[in-house]
Amino acid sequence: MSAETVQLGTHRPRNNSSTAGGDSPIAVARESGQFPGHSSAPRRKLTVLMAGPAHAAAAPGGGDVQRLRTAAALGAFGVEAVLGRPTPERLAHVDCLHLFGSVPEHLASVAVARRMGVPVVLSTIAWFELANCWREPRPMVWRACAALKFLGRAACPRLPSWRRRLYRAVDLLLPNSRAEAAQLVRYFGASEERVHVVPNGAESRFARGEPDLFARGVGGRRFVLCAGRVEPRKNQLGLLRSMRESGLPVVVLGDAVPGHARYLARCRETASPRVRFLPRLEHDDPLLAAAYAACGCLVLPGWFETPGLAALEAALSGAPLVLTTGGATREYFREHAVYVDPDDHAGMRRAIERAVRQPRNLALASHVRKNFTWQAAARATRRAYERVR
Q1: Same domain, residue pair 171 and 302
Q2: Pair (311, 297) in one structural domain
Q3: pLDDT at residue 55 above 80?
Q4: Degrees to nearest 5, angle at CA 238 with 154 and 325
Q5: Dihedral pair phi/psi, residue 193, rounded to 5°
Q6: Are residues 50 and 114 in the same domain?
Q7: Do 289 and 381 have their domain in common?
Q8: Cβ-based neighbours of 68, under 8 Å, separated by 6 or more
């Protein structure tokens, strides 16, 4: 069976009546941490193969961190997570295939798993919005076509596309938020019974960063921190334009995504003398936690975030957050963050200048610590595996 002709799987997700109220498809599952007090012992040991896009190694991002941290946390819930490409040799020895990211290459992997009778779940990590079609740094004709396709899909979710084939081919979709789940139903006709929300998480070590480790390198604290891959979708250029009239120091922490070296060059040309560009830090590097602890606020000004792992990590340190209105940010951070339109440069600057004057946000840190841990994500993921076995 080719990737083009892959059909709906034969493994159907099962509802488990032992969960009070059942698995609401457009609501965070009880075990996600949103509903404390629920626990259940794993029924049996499971082995799961976890795979992301082939390009993830060249441009590591939140999706890859999500895969690795979920894998590490699953052991406590009776799941052995195997990392690697979904080859027939590996699939022959696992109970489930867990794919990360909405990319066309996953269609071929699903087809192989189907032939071998292995159920598949997909962490979609996606967001769909008309305005984003126009923000792409592409020719006008390309953007117009993208906008027309979006409007067509909004009017008719049955329109064929590789995304629709992929979302219908897997046994269960694992979005990171209720908002993302609703989009899968609205724009691609995914059945609500095949949606299982799994929250993102952050590690407790980010609450214990040593600010001086980072402050010594940048010459002080209370700077504006923008952490993440440098690419148009992350809108670092908009942030730098908004801060040209501000006297606040800014640190852009991250590498350019392959193919976006010119975008990084534009960011450097636009930046004021008070902006420092620093290379990406490994996720386990103590300097990353130190950067969160030292900054005056974290800014994620991108077109959307789902919700942005850097925001969850910085929140544990109590850093004030200035976040895009796009994506699932409000669902995660509620009243504990400030939200800005990524196209409103003046509004962004005002929000940032207010944020850096604020003390550490202990209520924000407590909110994330209680609701968004990798243990909660792993517990919800284990339930997803049970539904397809």
Answers
A1: no
A2: yes
A3: no
A4: 45
A5: -70, -15
A6: yes
A7: no
A8: 83, 283
DSSP state of 327: B
Token output for 121? 């779940």
Radius of gyration of the chain (CA): 21
Residue 43 confidence (pLDDT):
62
Distance from chain centroid for Cα 150: 21
Q: Quick one: tokens of 207? A: 């609450």
Instruction: Kindly report, residue by residue over 82-106, the tens digit of the pLDDT.
Output: 999 999 999 999 999 999 999 999 9
Clarify whether residues 98 and 58 are in a common domain. yes
- Domain residues for 138? 3-201+373-388
Q: What is the DSSP string of 227-284?
A: ES-BSGGGTHHHHHHHTTT----EEEE-PBPTT-HHHHHHHHHH--TTEEEEPPPPTT
We report the CATH number of the domain holding residue 292 as 3.40.50.2000
Query: Model confidence over 136-190: pLDDT tens digits?
Result: 888 999 899 999 998 998 999 989 999 999 999 999 999 999 999 999 999 999 9
Handedness of CA 199, 204, 207, 213 (dihedral sign): negative
Instruction: Tell whether 364 and 382 lie within a shared domain.
Output: no
The total of structural domains in the chain comes to: 2
> What is the pLDDT, as a whole number, of residue 292?
98
Instruction: Tell me whether strands 338-340 and 321-324 are parallel, antiparallel or unpaired.
Output: parallel
CATH number for the domain spanning 165: value is: 3.40.50
173 and 212 co-located in one domain:
no
SS3 content of the chain, % helix, strand, coil (to 5): 45, 15, 40
358 CB-near residues (< 8 Å, 6+ apart)? 297, 320
CA atoms within 13 A on the CB side of 54: 8
Of 105, 143, 116, 128, which is closest to residue 190 (Cα–Cα)?
128
**Unique residue bearing structure tokens 């027939």:** 88
In which residue are the tokens 């925001």 written? 311
Taking Cα atoms as reference points, which of 227, 222, 223 lies closest to residue 202? Answer: 227
The predicted-structure confidence for 221-267, as pLDDT tens digits, reads as follows: 899 999 999 999 999 999 999 999 999 999 999 999 999 999 999 99
